[in-house]
Each structure stands twice: as C-alpha cells, then as structure tokens.
Design goal:
globular, mainly alpha
C-alpha cells in the first residue's frame, strides 16, 4: 500500500477488496479500525502537528493516521513505538492525507451487501487518545529529531496560544472519535 499517491493507493486497495468475500472485507475493516485506534495516541498527534504545522486539525489527524497505516506494518509499528523515527522517513506533506482508507472496507462491504459490516461487540473506539496529555512545549523534548527535521521550535511568547491550539486539536480529535463511534452499528442495529 505504501507506494503512489493517496487516490491511487485507495483505488488499488478498493479493487482488491471488491474481489474478496464479504466476510474477509468485514474482517479487513475491523482490523483497519483496530490499527486506527492504536494510532490514536498523543505522541502520534504531536508528530502530526510537528509535520503538518499549526493548521493541523481533526481532519488532518484522521488523514494522517490513514497515511500511517498505509505505510505498512513495519513502518506503522516502528512509528507507534518511536514517533521520533518519522524524522528518518521520506515524507511529503501533500501525501499525508488518507482519511478514505479508514472506512474503505466498510464502503466495499456495504456496496456488496447493502448493509454495514457487523460490529465486533468486544471492540470499543477509545474516547481519549492514549498516552499522557501533551503540550507543544514538550514536543522538542519528546520528538527532538522530528522537530529538528521539520523546523518546529517552541517560542515562549507564543506558549499560551500554542497550548490552546493543541487543546483545540485534541478536543476536535476526541469529538471525531466520539462521532465515529456513534456511526458504528450496535448489536441492536443488527436485529
């Protein structure tokens, strides 16, 4: 999945999913949600903010996690373990936005069956990102190589403004997760 432009990757994966049995597409979608939730981590949110910049919002965070998943298992795991390792990756900001990847399995399943994939009753979307709450002032210590690579510097005179920005991004991301959770089918929907 990790080669090509986002639309090309999505189209290629859609073609593959459309040839798979519905049960496998549903399982793929469930795994996509599991991986997406693993990337719902304050360190990943911080890394996305460093790379994308001050304009980084909930949609950018969503798309960034999709991009991160699209880079393959080894890259994904390495980034979850050490987000600062993104400093060593070749990254183009214009290819960091892949939100359509997250729900692609669901779309293919629904197109095939007319229904949403069955929900796993054991699975819950987290309401808060994993890890301790972060402040922009901590990013250069938490992600020193990434901050150096992307030119992120902390300036004390903008501290209050930046703390408010991160709080706003985190609030929007949390809202997005709660909204996505509400869209998942419940056991009652299946009856």
């Amino acid at each position: 999945l990790n080669e090509g432009q986002p639309d090309d990757v999505i189209n290629e994966l859609q073609i593959i999913l459309e040839t798979m049995p519905d049960e496998e597409v549903a399982a793929f979608q469930q795994q996509m949600l599991v991986q997406y939730c693993k990337a719902f981590d304050n360190r990943i949110i911080g890394a996305a903010y460093v790379i994308i910049g001050e304009s980084c919002d909930q949609d950018d965070q969503h798309g960034f996690r999709g991009w991160l998943i699209s880079q393959g298992e080894a890259f994904f795991k390495k980034t979850l373990e050490d987000p600062d390792s993104l400093a060593d990756a070749t990254i183009s900001r214009k290819f960091l936005y892949m939100p359509d990847l997250i729900g692609l399995g669901s779309e293919v399943f629904e197109a095939s069956t007319g229904e949403l994939p069955p929900a796993d009753p054991e699975f819950e979307l987290p309401s808060e990102p994993a890890g301790s709450e972060l402040l922009l002032s901590e990013l250069p210590k938490l992600l020193p190589n990434l901050c150096a690579e992307w030119g992120f510097e902390w300036e004390e005179e903008t501290a209050a403004e930046n703390v408010d920005l991160v709080a706003d991004v985190l609030a929007k991301v949390n809202s997005q997760v709660a909204s996505a959770d509400a869209e998942l089918p419940s056991d009652e929907d299946e009856l």
